[in-house]
Amino acid sequence: MKSNSLFLLLVFPFLFSCENSTEQQEEIPLESMRNEVSATKVTVAKAEQRSFDYLINASGKVEAGQEVMVVIERQGYLKELSVQEGQYVEAGAVIARLDNTDNVFRKEKALVQLKNAQASYNSEKLGFGSILEGEDQEQVLQLDEQLKASSGLLSAEIELKEAELELAKATIKAPVSGKVADLQVKPGSLVNAGDELCEVLNTHTLLLNVKVLESDIPFISLGQTAEVYPVSAGTGTLSGKVGSINPKVDENGLVEVGIKLTGAQKLLPGMNARAVIRAPQSDNVVVPKQALVYRSGRPVVFTVNGKEAKWNYVEVGKDNGREIEILDGIKDGETVITSNNLQLGHQAQIQIAKENE
């Protein structure tokens, strides 16, 4: 009996102290527990309702505004080549000459035939003086044509024109103003009709032809601005405008878009470049892309509510790589959290970092 009483006296104070400890733990307010957790340092930005630029990225090659292949039109030996690659030529300037000895001879022969035919024509006209001097002009014209044909004058005139045309083909001129590229032959070479001599590139106007996804074509129109980033170093960023849209989709689901470049003196045809075409959209709330996170597959944006983070489910629109449209869930002017938001929770304590932190 004494031992049992002693045991109860020892145990009872212990149970009483445990009960008091439990009560004290239960009485700790939730607010004090939050204060014990250090606030998450975050950066913020303002949600803005404004026009959103949907950015379409595409790559391609730079081309000259005009690229004309100079083709040799007759057979012969290349007697003279007046240009070299990279040289600028004006339209109509002589760039090469073929040996034209045979053409000069043919022209002289055609001139002799023309003189003989002219003499025959004049002789035959003498027998029809009364008709040719008559008032019936239709009859006069008809008789004159017959005399030209019978005397060989018409044939001689055609022969002379053909000889002059062949002689002109021996002198090769620049079809457009531009720089000479890809010279194919050397002086003294025997060339044939249809051989390519060189290419003349009009580099005053340069184009960037890019391939764009067919799904993005509805957002592109003539005159839209574009930023061009050449691959080559030292050329910088260029500007341009959409100048053409091919109305055909290729087998890969791509559409060719031509961009006219400005201030592209350092570029050369054939260079690779990337274009970013700006397609303005309707006014919506826009936030930095970093403000958007996904929880259980749903898009979420955290906003600032005093010293706490507020969880907001949102409906997103287009994404241009830097900003994203918010169609619903965020209002214009709200402050959104743009960093340390991947593991952030609703009503989590936050501390807004200063700009230099």
TrEMBL record:
Family according to the record: Belongs to the membrane fusion protein (MFP) (TC 8.A.1) family.
Pfam families linked to this entry: Beta-barrel_RND_2, BSH_RND, CzcB_C
Keywords assigned: Signal
Coiled coil: none
Domain CusB-like beta-barrel: 208-279
Organism annotation: Echinicola vietnamensis (strain DSM 17526 / LMG 23754 / KMM 6221)
Origin: domain of life: Bacteria
One cellular component (GO) term of this entry: efflux pump complex
Molecular-function GO term, any one: efflux transmembrane transporter activity
Signal peptide: 1-17
InterPro entries, alphabetized: Beta-barrel_RND_2, CzcB_C, MdtA-like_BSH, RND_pump_MFP
Annotated ranges, domain CzcB-like C-terminal circularly permuted SH3-like: 285-340
TM segment ranges: none
Protein name: RND family efflux transporter, MFP subunit
Occurrences of domain Multidrug resistance protein MdtA-like barrel-sandwich hybrid (ranges): 75-200
Cited PANTHER family: HLYD FAMILY OF SECRETION PROTEINS, MULTIDRUG RESISTANCE PROTEIN MDTA
